[in-house]
Amino acid sequence: MGIKENYLQIRKEIPGYVKIVLAAKMRTKEEIEEVIDAGGEIIGENYVQEAERMYESLGEEAKRLKWHMIGSLQKNKINKALRVFDCIQTIDSPELAEAVNKRAQNLNRVISVFIEVNIGSEITKAGVEPNYEIVKKLAEYMSGLRYLRLEGLMTMGPRVGNPEDSRVYFRKTKDIFEKLQKEISNGDLRYLSMGMSNSYKVAIEEGANMVRLGTVIFGKRGYDDGNINR
User: Fold this and answer.
1) Which stretches of 81-190 are assigned E, i.e. beta strand?
2) Hey, which bits of 18-132 come out as E strands?
3) CA-CA distance, 93 to 186, in Å (whole number)?
4) How far apart are CA 99 and CA 79, in angstroms?
5) Tens-place pLDDT, residues 72-84
6) Pick from 161, 226, 171, 158: which is nearest to 202 by CA?
7) How far is CA 68 from CA 19, 40, 55, 88, 121, in A?
8) Separation CA 188–CA 186 (nearest Å)
9) Where does residue 157 fall: left (phi above 0), alpha (psi -120 to 50 degrees), or beta otherwise?
């Protein structure tokens, strides 16, 4: 099947409330246009410069989409990121949150943000330690920043061959998410972003209402870049 058919099939198979973020890393304008034509609404990008190029290449069509930052955000790229992205899913420290808030204030805009949780406690990955009190403390801090709107949690989880091995990590993230929803009174926590091409079905079973899909829709790239956020 082609890109359009892949997207429509997945959209048909998963619950309607689940948002699909199209992981567009290293994809072409033509590939993105095909999935947009099928009904895709949210573009996820790992890198600011790549997002800028795609945004510009799509012209007026880009403005009708939502753009999510799903890769680590460097502080020196925040200003450029805020010109493209509607949501940053990868906030993992008070310092980064404050930096984004300050630059959003300069632009007089409120930006949607998620907290990234390093649910597998992997040294090589970004994200907050998967300790509820630590996540809660960051959530409380972010909820007090005027130009940030805390809307969700995001996790990648360890890269595993068998999707079932991801279940325990997704379940733990869902537990943190549900506790936060009860305790963060001035937030708007509604999205749980977890699950990629090899694990989205398990993630949805464990409570995800947003998944980040690349390979399963666009097909494999000509190489394996080792990035699981796709």
Assistant:
1) 87-91, 111-117, 148-155
2) 19-23, 42-45, 66-69, 87-91, 111-117
3) 19
4) 10
5) 999 999 999 999 9
6) 171
7) 12, 13, 12, 6, 24
8) 7
9) left
Which two structure tokens, joined as six digits, stand for 21?
A: 């973020």
Distances (CA, A) of 146 to 56, 81, 108, 189: 29, 18, 10, 16
Q: Tokens at residue 192, please?
A: 């749980």
Q: 3-218 has which CATH code?
A: 3.20.20.10
Q: Model confidence over 200-229: pLDDT tens digits?
A: 999 999 999 999 999 999 998 654 444 444
Q: Kindly write down the DSSP assignment for every residue of 20-66, as one continuous string.
A: EEEE-TT--HHHHHHHHHTT--EEEES-HHHHHHHHHHHGGGGGGSE
* Lookup: tokens for 6: 């892949």
Mean pLDDT of 58-83: 96
Count, residues in the chain: 230
Q: The tokens 């790992």 sit on which residue?
A: 46
Contact indicator for 126, 92 with CB cutoff of 8 Å: yes
Residue 43 three-state SS: strand
Alpha-carbon gap, residue 184 to 45, rounded angstroms: 28
- Tokens 């808030």 correspond to 101
Residue range 27-46: mean pLDDT, rounded = 96
- Whether the Cβ atoms of residue 21 and residue 70 lie closer than 8 Å to each other: yes
Token pair of 177 as six digits: 């998410």
